[in-house]
Write a structure and sequence with these properties.
The complex is a heterodimer of chains A (124) and B (1159). By secondary structure, chain A is an alpha+beta fold. Chain A has four helices and six strands; from the N terminus they run αββββααββα. Chain A has a six-stranded antiparallel beta sheet with strand order 1-2-3-4-6-5. Chain A is globular and about 40 Å long. Chain B is of the alpha/beta class. Helices cover 44% and strands 10% of the residues of chain B. In chain B, the strands form five sheets. Chain B has a seven-stranded parallel beta sheet, with helices on both faces. The chains are: A alpha+beta (124), B alpha/beta (1159). The interface between A and B is large, with 45 and 56 residues.
């Protein structure tokens, strides 16, 4: 039986490529979000900027932490491979497709926005 | 489209204006604007000045956001003061006019759900939208001017700062974007890059939209171009490689202005064009269309209503309740200024001859810019302009012309020569009959307490008029003191006057009389030498006599007379008189007197500072009062509930740290009479000055209102005009001005204190009984006016006072009313203190200003008189100026609405003066402007058709041969050409998205989290927190981790945010180690706080979780959130601070502020 999250992702702007979901936006930009299943939660992750970009912008970690104060559901950090990523925990308890997609789209939108700010491009 | 019935369930426009008709008009406006924006994507609200366009716009925005919680808004105000006003009004609007918290517009604590962000410049805007675009942004139009030094090329330093600032947030911008060789190209590309940084706004509000009337194009102001390009103008020619994502940034645009056009419909089209909204309305600029057809086109998106006041059942539109003094005089209506003597006539004749000769010069072609001849305002020396400064001018709104000579004033050189010659010959300044007449008329201000607003064009006129009025004020005040002070002090008084004259002369010679600009309200008042009041009654005052300043200081907190304006709370609580308190208290508490005294003494030490060697009398009084009230609130009985309220509202925060270990004897402090205990004994006077709160109010509200009123009365009485009465009374009692006479006063017996209070109250009674005319305006009048309009004053000046602790509100009142001056002057930038004081009774009674106050600033609350001393060249500017005092809830509005019936007398009306001299060239410009004002009025109200393009210059050749004729004031009732149509307030949305129960249920769900078992967590919750906030400490084995939970919303979904502080880490400095420490922790969300303030934490771990549609899973979801956040925060704390385990108390204040984030 398919995992719940696969059933949740039924929308024309979403295309699944397990364990990823591609989220397409109205302005033709798009963002790829990884879905990782745990016992009680899903962990959603999307890449914002690769190591080279992170290294070229020395103030980027602080920018990410300042942004974290404002963004909802999504948190940004530099991971062990020194990439800038956005993540969100999604509790499974009582989760509906509508809320799962809200989490998913929020991660995609916020990461896409941050990506545009740091690179002016739509790559990740 | 929304239906007005649904809107009325959400919006209550009558909550504060208490005027059903106006409230209805505003509601209709909000609905119509909302529906127009939905249909057209653009709307123009052109209601007359003062009808509350800001509130109507906020109403429309609220309706959008209620149905569309992610609705994003940008508000562009013309300048800083209006930008801040918008932010203040949004807070007020949400608190008072949105009926219930819906978690979309209004949060549980009554404030806006979305944080508000003031952007001081465009880089600020980029930074803020990059951090979080889902807030409400407030900008000012002047920011789009993007000042860059240099004439054509760009100043490198300026440009580099802008470029680097932009690249900080958009690091990918290429070098070729920033062309430093061409100013225009640099600005254009900066604006295109700005567009790339901006999100798409669902609504952009452009306040005072007429400022954009010259449109978007190559040869318009840079400001309009930068704004247009930043909004993604379709004609931007943006290179998509350089500017990826460039495009329209405003889904909808709302323009606000009472004066949307000056001369032609082109102006309307131009404004739409700046934001790329003009194409559907191309007919507005068609040359082959009749004006009526253009009117119909404008009617597709424009709304205008006219204001009126019903007097005796008859409707009076603004032209009918304003009295215009069109013949130039200022003393008798419809009479010109009379020249006093032959010398004045000769001087005027001479200057006219010079001006005529000058205008005859080929350079000027017998014409001049309206309002830009210096001689119309003053014969004193006007500064010569520096030729290299292309933006400078001697007149405000110098943008009227690009001609440097015109900006300077073409008659400046001639008049300066004449003035210097006159000064050399006669040893005094050349008389200026207009200036003298106006000064003479305004001298009545401090005799009658009537305020006047004076607009000038020539910047230097502000100082000159102020100086002359200050001199007149000094004459009046000195005469008053001579008359009222005892005979014994007269010689000393004359010495004081002489010393003042000497010091003032010295200061004038140095060009320094007033206080330095830019002082913050917290800084000590330095007084000044511009008036005797400033020198003697403010600041330090002269030290060698008992000065007014010295008396004022004695009423301050902790000083000798500080208890004078206090209340005896214990007496009031027990319902007894001073003198009976101890016995009554002893009985109520059931303790004998001796024990009562010793226990009170013991308790009072907590309210006395441990740092003080000797406690001032007023501090001891306060401590004993606090101790008694605290005792009563802890003792069950009939007084417990009210004592609890007084304790919480008045004394809870009075405990100094550290407190005294021992307190002095309580003495007779329980029995002290004060101004307010004795005022209660004079019911008629009390009703006027300190009315008891309405019986509808609950006990807390009632006590708070009573206290706030008392604090404001006390501040007004000791800091302004009323201080003169207090001084006269005090010196009368001392019969001396010698400092040693005052030093004899210390701990006074209650009888002597009571004597002083009663003498003061008797004075107020006498003033009450004596009509103005038979006496000068005095303390009673000022205090009575404050009392009568207390809520209005709070609304316009200190709305936060209603929520603040009483002590903070009292401090705010002190700052509001400090540094008063009888005559205020303003140019260049807005002086906030002066503006706020002008919105109150009392000083400043005259406010002289350039056009810096022409737009947006409310000055209507106590002023019914406008002087156009320097005339403006556009009717809309004239209308904007009058609009400062002609507004909803204005003094005129209140006065006329109270008139039951009968004909409206001239002196009852709002007075509008056009001071000018007959038989001078000036009369031509006044006549022209008055004609244009009439045309403007007719066109705005019967349609927006203009007869032809009006010139901003006067041709003396044409005007001299035109027959002179009066330009009468239009008297017929005005009728709008663009009323709201019925279909604009009807719609298919008849129900709100959520009702009041939504937030109520959510708040209950949120509160239940505290009582629910949270798996894996051991939490100590704080007993009380503000609405929408829960504070707690998670116990993690032997360690603890404090946190706060905030109830928020994400779009339509409720969301809980958890914030757990780590400590002061300085993330900028310690960035690398923090990155390393958190790289391996999955989904840790670190929040860094950038602040210049002292703070207990600048690093926190945060997280959020959505709540489900029902509450079953709340505890489980929130428990997982808290678990994750507090563990991550505690781990980081251990890594960053090895032995530290900070407790909630360390972070409490800032954690409580987390819910406020800029709202």
């Amino acid at each position: 039986m398919a995992a719940d999250w696969l059933r949740f992702c039924q929308s024309p702007d979403l295309s699944i490529d397990e364990p990823y979901v591609d989220v397409r936006f109205r302005d033709e930009r798009h963002q790829r979000v990884q879905v990782e299943e745990h016992d009680d939660v899903y962990l959603l992750t999307a890449f914002v900027a690769r190591q080279a970009v992170v290294s070229s912008l020395p103030n980027l970690p602080v920018q990410a932490w300042l942004r974290n104060r404002a963004t909802q559901l999504v948190g940004f950090r530099i991971d062990q491979r020194r990439r800038l990523i956005g993540e969100a925990w999604v509790p499974k308890a009582g989760l509906t497709a509508e809320q799962f997609m809200l989490y998913l789209r929020t991660v995609a939108v916020e990461c896409d926005r941050f990506e545009y700010a740091v690179s002016g491009r739509d790559v990740e | 489209m929304i239906d007005i019935r649904a809107a009325a369930e959400l919006l209550d426009f009558g909550a504060r204006i208490k005027n059903e008709q106006r409230a209805r008009e505003q509601l209709e406006g909000a609905v119509a604007v909302h529906n127009l924006l939905l249909r057209e994507g653009v709307a123009y609200l052109a209601d007359e000045v003062g009808m509350g366009k800001t509130f109507v716009a906020l109403g429309a925005m609220t309706l959008f956001r209620h149905f569309q919680p992610n609705f994003r808004a940008l508000i562009i105000a013309p300048r800083e003061n209006i930008q801040l006003k918008w932010m203040k009004e949004l807070g007020n609007f949400v608190r008072h006019n949105v009926r219930f918290p819906d978690m979309r517009v209004k949060a549980l604590d009554g404030r806006p759900v979305r944080p508000l962000v003031a952007c001081n410049n465009l880089l600020d805007l980029v930074r803020e939208v990059t951090l979080d675009r889902d807030r409400d942004f407030f900008l000012r139009l002047t920011s789009f001017s993007l000042p860059l030094k240099g004439r054509d090329e760009v100043d490198l330093g300026f440009a580099s700062r802008l470029r680097d600032g932009l690249r900080e947030h958009l690091p990918w911008l290429r070098n070729e974007v920033f062309d430093l060789r061409n100013k225009q190209a640099f600005k254009d590309n900066f604006a295109r890059a700005l567009c790339c940084a901006l999100p798409v706004f669902d609504l952009v509000i452009v306040d005072e939209g007429h400022n954009l009337k010259h449109g978007f194009g190559e040869n318009v102001s840079a400001r309009n171009r930068v704004l247009g390009l930043a909004m993604g103008h379709p004609d931007s020619h943006a290179d998509r490689k350089l500017f990826p994502g460039f495009g329209p940034r405003a889904k909808r645009v709302l323009f606000l202005s009472a004066t949307p056009v000056e001369e032609t419909y082109d102006h309307l089209w131009n404004q739409l064009d700046v934001v790329g909204r003009s194409s559907p309305y191309q007919e507005l600029v068609a040359t082959d269309l009749e004006e009526e057809e253009k009117k119909a086109v404008a009617g597709r998106f424009l709304i205008r209503r006219v204001t009126s006041i019903q007097i005796g059942g008859e409707e009076h539109t603004k032209n009918r309740y304003r009295r215009e003094w069109r013949h130039g005089g200022v003393h008798v209506h419809d009479e010109p200024i009379h020249l006093a003597d032959a010398k004045q006539r000769l001087v005027v004749g001479l200057v006219q001859k010079k001006v005529s000769e000058l205008l005859g010069d080929a350079r000027f072609n017998r014409s001049f810019q309206i309002g830009m001849l210096a001689s119309f305002e003053s014969f004193l020396e006007t500064a010569k302009l520096k030729r290299e400064d292309s933006d400078a001018g001697n007149f405000d709104d110098a943008d009227q012309t690009d001609d440097l000579l015109q900006r300077e004033g073409i008659d400046v050189a001639s008049v300066n020569r004449l003035a210097a010659d006159y000064r050399n010959k006669f040893g005094r300044e050349m008389p200026h009959p207009k200036m003298d007449a106006v000064v003479d008329a305004l001298t009545n201000s401090w005799k009658r307490g009537e305020k006047a607003l004076v607009f000038v064009r020539r910047v230097a006129s502000v100082k000159e008029l102020k100086r002359k009025l200050d001199e007149r004020y000094d004459d009046w005040l000195m005469e008053r003191l001579r008359r009222d002070l005892p005979e014994a002090v007269q010689p000393r008084l004359e010495e004081v006057f002489e010393r003042y004259r000497v010091e003032k002369k010295e200061a004038l010679a140095k060009g320094r009389t007033g206080e330095k600009n830019g002082r913050t309200p917290d800084e000590a008042d330095q007084g000044g030498k511009d008036t005797f009041f400033a020198w003697f009654f403010r600041g330090e005052g002269p030290q060698w006599v008992v000065s007014g300043a010295n008396i004022q200081q004695r009423f301050k907190k902790g000083a000798a007379y500080a208890a004078f304006f206090e209340d005896n709370y214990v007496a009031d609580l027990l319902g007894c008189r001073p003198g009976e308190v101890e016995a009554q208290l002893s009985e109520v508490l059931g303790v004998p007197t001796e024990r009562l005294r010793s226990e009170l003494r013991h308790r009072s030490r907590r309210f006395l500072s441990g740092a003080a060697k000797r406690h001032a009398a007023a501090d001891r009084y306060e401590a004993v009062q606090a101790a008694a009230v605290e005792w009563l609130k802890d003792r069950p009985g009939p007084h417990q509930a009210r004592a609890g309220i007084i304790w919480r509202e008045r004394f809870q925060y009075s405990c100094p740290m550290p407190h005294a270990s021992e307190a002095p004897e309580i003495g007779d402090w329980l029995e002290l009479p004060t101004f307010f205990t004795e005022l209660r004994q004079r019911p008629k006077l009390r009703d006027i000055l300190w009315p008891a709160p309405s019986s509808d109010a609950n006990q807390v509200e009632a006590f708070r209102e009573q206290e706030l009123r008392a604090q404001m009365l006390a501040s007004a009485a000791r800091l302004g005009h009323g201080l003169i009465d207090l001084y006269v009374m005090t010196i009368g009692r001392l019969n001396s001005m010698e400092p040693r006479a005052q030093e004899a006063e210390g701990d006074e017996p209650a009888g002597r204190v009571a004597g002083r209070i009663h003498e003061y109250l008797d004075l107020l009674e006498r003033q009450k009984e004596t009509p103005i005319g038979a006496r000068d305006w005095g303390t009673f009048d000022e205090l009575a006016e404050i009392a009568r309009n207390f809520n209005l004053i709070l609304d316009v000046n200190e709305p936060e006072a209603r929520q603040q602790p009483i002590g903070e509100a009292a401090k705010a009142f002190g700052q509001l009313l400090g540094r008063q001056q009888p005559v205020g002057g303003m140019s260049g930038q807005v002086n906030r203190t002066l503006v706020r004081q002008f919105r109150m009774p009392g000083y400043p009674l005259v406010l002289i200003t350039t056009d810096v106050l022409q737009e947006g600033e409310d000055l209507h609350t106590f002023c019914s008189s406008v002087h156009h001393y320097g005339i403006s060249w556009t009717p809309s500017s004239m209308e904007q100026r009058i609009g400062r005092v002609d507004r909803v809830r204005s003094q005129t509005d209140r006065r006329l609405s109270d008139l039951a019936h009968g004909a409206l007398k001239g002196e009852d009306k709002l007075q509008v003066y056009f001071p000018h001299l007959e038989d001078t060239v000036e009369v031509l410009q006044v006549q022209r402007v008055l004609e244009r004002m009439n045309v403007f009025l007719r066109l705005m109200h019967e349609g927006l058709i203009m007869a032809g393009r009006e010139k901003q210059t006067i041709s003396t050749e044409e005007e001299f041969v035109r027959p002179r004729q009066d330009v009468p004031q239009i008297d017929e009732c005005l009728r709008s050409a663009f009323p709201i149509r019925e279909d604009q307030v009807k719609g298919d949305i008849e129900e709100l998205a959520v009702g009041p129960e939504f937030a109520r249920d959510l708040a209950e769900r949120f509160a239940r989290i505290k009582c629910s078992p949270l798996a894996g967590l051991n939490i100590r919750w704080e007993p009380s927190s503000p609405p929408g906030t829960l504070l707690g400490t998670a116990c993690l084995g032997k360690r603890v981790q404090p946190f706060t939970l905030l109830l928020k919303s994400l779009g339509r979904d409720p969301l809980v945010r958890c914030i757990s502080p780590v400590g002061r880490v300085s993330p900028h400095d310690d960035q690398e180690s923090l990155v390393t420490r958190t790289a391996g922790t999955r989904a840790v969300k670190i929040g860094a706080i950038e602040t210049d303030d002292e703070c207990t934490y600048d690093l926190a771990v945060e997280g959020d979780v959505l709540l489900a549609s029902t509450s079953e899973t709340d505890a489980q979801r929130v428990a997982m959130l808290i678990n994750r956040v507090v563990h991550q925060a505690d781990s980081l704390e251990q890594e960053c601070f090895q032995d530290q385990d900070a407790v909630l108390e360390t972070f409490r204040d800032e954690l409580l502020e987390e819910g406020n984030d800029g709202r």
